[in-house]
Amino acid sequence: MSQPLLSAIYVYPVKSCAGIELDAAHLDTWGLRYDRNWLIVDEKGSFLTQRAFPRLALIKTALEPDSLRLTSPGMPEFSVPLAPIASERLSVTVWDDQCQAVDQGSAAAEWLSTFLETPCRLVRIGEGYDRPVEPDYISEPAQVSFADAYPLLVISEASLRDLNARLEIPLPMNRFRPNLVVFGCEPYAEDGWRAVRIGNATFRGVKLCERCAITTTDQATAERGKEPLVTLATYRRAKSGVVFGQNLVHTNIGEVRRGDAVEVLEVQS
Length: 269
Description:
single chain; mainly beta; M1 Pyruvate Kinase, Domain 3; nine-stranded mixed sheet; four-stranded antiparallel sheet; 19 strands
């Protein structure tokens, strides 16, 4: 088979909101720059996701030169600055992790609370943010943003094609919210990747991604169904649950571009 290539790059600035496709992305401490750097929390500081609020899928994001722009049906456009703002620091919870974040102001809170019809606030990674990746599957310490557990997720186009061949109605890649999409490998080849180089960045494959109800949510309508979980459960079940895609940890600061060669350095033995 020909050399695998990086065919798409996605970031999701606000956790569980719509993503943005990029031509290139820089890797910082937590993963792709701006990926899951913002988080919506309830009045107790606990994170909100599409699992309980599927309407989050309808909040579109756009990175402007100096701001993050949010749009959603029936709401006026709203922006928050990309530059850090001086604001209250809050303790927030993502799964079992407690971390420090910076509140993004009452206007953002009002906008989101109105659309989601529940009291909530927007927070951002700030100075002093510390959220280590769980050490069970990694050999070197790493940090993660407000993503569920790992900095990046890779899925191949071939894996999605194989899944879609089993479904009555094919699904788009956005159901699975990957950061990196690869063209030119066998279906599920990414399952075995232990080390890869893309552009000038290197990554370790750490753990297959366990899939949840978000994959059953239509990202264009926020309507929820049963697929792909029903079908995935027939052939992609692991001890931890249904899996699709490989979680990655980056091992250096670098940059990736659409069209970069994906060099597999090590595979699972």
